[in-house]
């Protein structure tokens, strides 16, 4: 591990506010999938991209005003950091998600130029990468010894230094370390991908695009048996589809959880707003993590009775009932 | 049956608007439990009380502006009319409930003066009264023959005329028909009571008293298997306790129902208003039948997270989230 | 009303067991829709059909062993008795439903021969018939006076006696009373029908036909807010569609209900048996009223995961798990 | 990292069946919290305890018959491996959990003898340990540089070798590496603990103790919006309290999850068996991971209607109903 990794702030850099606005941090080191994901964002071209040693370090730079945003993996990563991201977003000073990026999982086997597959006796990579390539290894390199590296990029560096014969990493890392991709597109699971999020300080969410996602962290009021059921019911009653739910320990002891939940739709959609208000009442705490465009651009199915018009119509009807002018015209 | 019963409007009476405001109709004839219930209301002393031949007739007089209100039985009656009331409120021109009256069910056995229990061979009463006194009859008059009358009061009249030996009716009916109560406080079931409602044309509901009830009629959007479950869930999610649910045929064929539902609370309570809006979105039709004081004056238990403050706090929080200023302070 | 009506047992008849087996009672008098419904059953041709004065009387004859079965209206009747039927089945000595009959609601206007529509000034019929013909009356006989009769058939008798000009009754009643149908097929609501059930003493239910219905009465364990919701959830969890739910007062006081519920399927279907067991555990009381063929012969939709094979497969899997041989083959 | 770590099987060891029965693997290296947890089990004293390089390696040794059991962290670990454990149990050849161990999270700051707190400039430890001690670090060693090690034990080794001044590890690791604990009982969160499970090949679960836990992995039949809700409802309907739910990617692409769920009770408890059968029907796949004693020895609250007697009583009642002998005695 390099000294640069040890200190989240790269020495000698100016961390003034002016610079911060043009700076994005990310889970480093350079040459990782996270960097590749970050570079898919158009605005990345005009920002200073700063690798950080860990997810907390990347996010703390944003909290401290030293960077405008941070790109970190949040789901199904091949480089770890996912739990750290979920936990970091749930605690400490609030942050918000403004964008998500999906990157297919596909490894290259990087070797020093001239190395043949037969001569590969030792391989390395991030521990989280191992399960993603285990099947491929057993078929093509059954006798190779695996040893974990601190990151996939670090594994590439160790191959460059001659400590291992081959490293699993992104194909894009080859050039950086003077290696060549011997095999590409290695991934045991079909359709596997990592999801990354671009995180910033809290501000007004971006305008709805029609294909949005809303993320929250929920703390149950009490650990009574049906609490989680009630929470899911709140989404269902409002016609909001849940996309992901993850329980995370709160650090208050085994058996105490909070829930990280993504749902379809934007906080400005009435059905989502309604569900969020219900959760706010139901839960002991709700942290709004943002509404942002879905990377897959899928538009949600809105159930009958849960469109914005339905909510406005119901509110209008209630007002009329309070005034003695309710009606019961069937729809 | 008298001619007066046949025509809902008593002939020769002036049905001008001025008079209407001081007139209450009720399910007649005179001397029934409904009249007794009506007389428990303080304002009854200053109104003209007009017996009508049927529940529809009593309500139509209100619809037509010929009466300011109508008192009709709505639950567990000993004189019938309950289904008629529920169905009438669900169809035709809208009406609203403003008051409810509870009257314990207790019959007197009315006889001509001088009649002894031993000499009672035939008894009469409204068919709905029979199940309420069947047990008593089998113990005290096992051999007496029962024949139904058009109403309990009409049964008393038939005893007066000598066609039967005894009639089950309210003790209050004895004087009207020159009879005497041979036995009083007859009722097979403990705690049985009839519930009556005072119905008027739609107007602003009375102010909340803290011990209120809200009534609606609900038509399901479609007869899909879980529709009723969703409807009940809507109440549960808002923390509103349901007090009564009754399915009624819609007249659209066997298997098509609407639901008459009473719940705790007043439409001006946020949790009730929220539930009503949800039902409005969920159902193909909702008829608001009113929020009015509970006769039993029981105040509802309000679940944590469903007070007015909780709803206002959640709405305020949502506004702040939309503005990038949400917080997650735990309660 | 005739004396025969007053005594549920027709005098002079032999009520021995032998006779009882060939006797069906029904809600009388003769000439009502209930008799017409009973005569649609093939076996009615070989039974003695005995009209009774009331639903309780018809059912008590079965309880007492004086009749093998009783046909009584249970839903959406034009002659009343529906609540009585539901309540009678819920209380007293247990009975079971073995068959149902659907009869379209259609009245004839019966008059003395030679009477023209213009000359009809007074009309009669059962009070429950009135709402079914009210629209027709206001269009064709707006000035006619309505007076209720004890039954539709009794109304016909009163026309025969000259006390009224016309009676609403079944067309089949005309001959009995020497009347003629002036207008036929009168019914305000489209598709309206009455449902009748054939009731007998408890025995093994008939074999499943594939298009069956199961009826129960449920008493909630406690009147806690979510009890009804849990009950409906029990059906939903097992994939059993509810067809009808009706709340009925238990006679234990206002606000205490039991629920009369019909669902799709036969008790011998695993999903229905499973739901019934769940209800048995959940409720303070469950009365099984029978599984019998649906009159409409509609076969239920069985949700994935709730076929008999699914239930048997799950039970088999559980046994294997207990034995350390569970598997997780995906379906 | 040592060569021993690279090969899951320690060279030169006899892996015959006889030996295997007396061998337990665990997530190594020696001196970690996992080893400490394993040594709390009485039977550990008589087994050969073999450290493995990773959770998959520890579990594969069991699958291959080379060890009788494996102890691995499954929840809230300070040494990682938790997601790996959950994922490994959900895929590959089935395994079962037979025991759980709870170990409070408490670090010691290990230094070479004679080192004072003032002189600590560099610290190390497993990356997962960092968030657990971050608060302590910022208060007591705000200027110390953190660098991650492959494990807490490995960090201790690096301090022994002089590459760092101090390592966060379990106090029990001090002796192994010739270090001394400068500070003990370091943990930012109150009541934090790691949960470990002892895993073996599938067999009959241990007998119920009355304070048991049951673990499963569930795959939803389809990703329809309410699927997770239905799943939780299944537990609720049977009165089974859920203790932990964790969503894990199935490797079939972003947005496809399976659920790792722990609930109260033993598969031999009727309510648990019933819930499991329901899940088996509802889900496309269910993997039973075992019923085993709870480390906290807390006995579950069993809701009315869900005792073994209730289930047996309901089954008995159903049999009687099928035979025409159902009753409705209220409980």
TrEMBL record, chains A, B, C, D:
It comes from the Bacteria. It catalyses: prephenate + H(+) = 3-phenylpyruvate + CO2 + H2O. Pathway: Amino-acid biosynthesis; L-phenylalanine biosynthesis; phenylpyruvate from prephenate: step 1/1. Residues 216-294 form the ACT domain. PROSITE patterns: ACT, PREPHENATE_DEHYDR_1, PREPHENATE_DEHYDR_3. This is Prephenate dehydratase. Residues 23-201 form the Prephenate dehydratase domain. PANTHER family: PREPHENATE DEHYDRATASE P PROTEIN, PREPHENATE DEHYDRATASE-RELATED.
């Amino acid at each position: 591990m390099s000294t640069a990794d040890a200190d989240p702030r790269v020495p000698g850099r100016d961390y003034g506010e002016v610079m911060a606005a043009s700076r994005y941090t990310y889970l480093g080191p350079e040459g990782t999938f996270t960097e590749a994901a970050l570079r898919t964002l158009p605005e990345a071209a005009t920002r200073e991209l700063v690798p950080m040693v860990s997810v907390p370090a990347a996010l703390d730079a944003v909290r401290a005003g030293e960077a405008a945003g941070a790109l970190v993996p949040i789901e199904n990563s091949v480089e770890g950091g996912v739990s750290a991201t979920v936990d970091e977003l749930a605690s400490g000073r609030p942050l918000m998600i403004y964008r998500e990026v999906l990157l297919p999982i596909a490894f290259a086997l990087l070797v020093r130029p001239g190395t043949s597959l037969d001569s590969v006796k030792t391989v390395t990579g991030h521990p989280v990468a191992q399960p993603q390539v285990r099947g491929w290894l057993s078929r093509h390199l059954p006798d190779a010894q695996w040893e974990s590296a601190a990151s996939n990029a670090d594994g590439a560096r160790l191959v460059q230094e001659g400590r291992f014969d081959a490293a699993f990493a992104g194909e894009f890392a080859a050039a950086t370390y003077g290696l060549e991709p011997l095999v590409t597109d290695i991934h045991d699971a079909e359709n596997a991908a990592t999801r990354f999020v671009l995180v910033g300080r809290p501000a007004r969410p971006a305008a709805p695009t029609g294909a949005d996602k809303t993320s929250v962290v929920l703390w149950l009021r009490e650990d009574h048996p049906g609490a989680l059921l009630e929470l899911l019911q709140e989404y269902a009653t409002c016609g909001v589809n849940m996309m992901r739910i993850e329980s995370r320990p709160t650090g208050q002891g085994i058996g105490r959880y909070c829930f990280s939940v993504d749902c379809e739709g934007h906080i400005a959609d009435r059905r989502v707003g309604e569900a969020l208000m219900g959760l706010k009442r139901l839960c002991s705490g709700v942290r709004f993590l943002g509404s942002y465009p879905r990377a897959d651009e899928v538009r949600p199915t809105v159930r009958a009775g849960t469109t914005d018009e339905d909510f406005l119509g119901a509110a209008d009807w209630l007002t009329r009932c309070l005034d003695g002018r309710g009606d019961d015209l069937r729809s």
